[in-house]
Design goal:
- By secondary structure, the protein is an alpha/beta fold.
- Helix 12 (306-316) links the parallel strand 10 (296-299) and strand 11 (320-326).
- Residues 76-82 have low confidence and may be disordered.
- Helix 7 (152-161) runs parallel beside helix 9 (227-235) and helix 10 (248-262) packs antiparallel against helix 11 (267-288).
- The longest helix has 23 residues, at 402-424.
- It has 17 helices and 14 strands.
- Its cofactor is [4Fe-4S] cluster.
């Protein structure tokens, strides 16, 4: 079941490393999808009113809803160290848990480094865990925009959970990374049909379903931005299965194949289980990618999905990548996708936004994938853009979503063609 690789990929391509002004969302944004995924968890952001407004606006939570995140506002006296912030935090947590007995996991999320908020949230989490256990487990991680970028919030959250997971000697597969429930169900169904089980998920939907980890655990990532979680699981003795990420038909097949080889799934069973969904995926991609054939694409660094998505667009949708920028390049995670990415594009890590804008304007690509802060100015200059954030909030993994993934990129080009036609008429 070995995967056929191109003769020359991009794993050895020199990486352009840039350090300068960057345009990214902060790691707090991950709460928006994590609080929906973990049904008995609550995310308490310890920060300013600005952070509260960001979450409220980004999540679109109505004022009469009962969300599973909130903000403990730090006032000026707290920041100046004139109040006992620990005592105030303890009171707020006690009040929250008394009102919401359904909470089993409480995350204290720092919106700024501890030097700024004058509060050691790691120690606070330990203290509150001892007070409220065994009913509630309290964790801590940083979502600070100073310390984390957009998707690193999820990585920090999952990495904070790993040290507290129970120990296990069982040989089990752990699938790591948050996905919408419907996509997770598709993943589990494919693995079950291959005879692979039991399969554990991180994050789990409920605290009672959290996985155990040990030396016999093998784990497969579904998100390429989980570098700290990967390191934390490795420290617990678990072993990573390197594979391309499950975007598109090729990526999904390669991801499943790596797991199937690890668990000794017969070749004929693998082909039998994957044949029909592979055919559906290929048909859907062909339908949605007509506008993408022969077009060029330029990725600004944003979500760390850039390298697997560039592989999908070039290999499965007929596009040419001009530059593939990513906030951080973790070769241990995206190396298999780099092996498949045809040579040619600039591979850049980090960002100096003005220099990268110069390269993008000089290249004049057919499609530019970037953050919200760059999209409108580039559109005003006549460039066609795709919001990178939509690729995180939309179901895009595995076979059944392959056509939708291609459609996310073809839609802006289709819209521009329609507008041009209307203008000409």
């Amino acid at each position: 079941m070995s995967l056929d690789l191109p003769t020359i990929g991009c794993r050895t391509t020199p990486v352009l490393k840039e350090r300068g002004q960057r345009e990214v969302f902060c790691g707090l944004t991950g709460i928006i999808w994590l609080h929906r995924k973990m049904q008995d968890a609550f995310f308490l952001v310890v920060g300013s009113r600005t952070c509260a407004h960001l979450l409220q606006a980004a999540a679109g939570v109505m004022i009469f809803a009962e969300p599973r995140f909130g903000t403990a506002i730090l006032e000026e006296k707290d920041l100046a160290g004139l109040a006992d912030a620990n005592a105030e935090l303890d009171r707020e947590v006690a009040r929250l848990l008394a009102r919401r007995p359904d909470i089993k996991q409480l995350f204290l999320v720092g919106s700024c480094p501890s030097e700024v908020i004058k509060l050691d949230l790691a120690r606070a989490a330990e203290r509150l865990s001892s007070v409220h256990s065994p009913h509630v487990r309290v964790y801590n991680y940083s979502g600070s925009g100073i310390e984390t970028t957009f998707t690193q919030g999820e990585d920090a959250c999952l990495a904070a959970m790993v040290p507290t997971l129970p120990a296990s000697t069982a040989r089990e597969l752990l699938v790591v990374g948050a996905m919408p429930d419907v996509v997770e169900d598709q993943c589990l169904s494919l693995l079950a049909q291959l005879g692979i089980g039991p399969v554990r998920m991180l994050p789990a939907r409920r605290a009672g379903d959290l996985p155990a980890v040990g030396a016999n655990t093998v784990f497969a990532l579904v998100q390429p931005f989980l570098g700290d979680t990967h390191a934390a699981l490795t420290r617990r003795g678990a072993r990573h299965l390197p594979a391309p990420f499950p975007f598109g038909e090729e990526g999904t097949t390669a991801w499943l194949r790596a797991i199937a080889e690890e668990f000794g799934v017969p070749r004929d069973l693998f082909e039998q289980v994957t044949a029909a969904p592979r055919a559906r995926a290929l048909k859907a991609i062909a339908t949605q990618s007509q506008e993408l054939q022969g077009k060029s694409v330029f990725f600004f660094p944003d979500s760390q999905l850039e390298i697997p998505l560039a592989r999908f667009l070039t290999r499965e949708c007929g596009m040419t990548a001009v530059e593939v920028g990513t906030p951080y390049l973790h070769e241990g995670l995206v190396g298999p996708d780099l092996d498949l990415l045809p040579q040619g594009p600039v591979i850049s890590e980090g960002q100096d936004v003005e220099k990268q804008l110069d390269r993008q304007r000089a290249a004049a690509p057919d499609l530019t994938v970037c953050g919200l802060g760059l999209a409108n100015p580039l559109e005003a200059e006549g460039h066609t853009t795709k919001w990178a954030i939509e690729l995180v909030f939309t179901p895009v993994h595995f076979y059944e979503q392959a056509g939708d993934l291609a459609g996310l990129f073809s839609r802006p080009l289709r819209r521009k063609a329609i507008l041009r036609k209307e203008a000409a008429e």
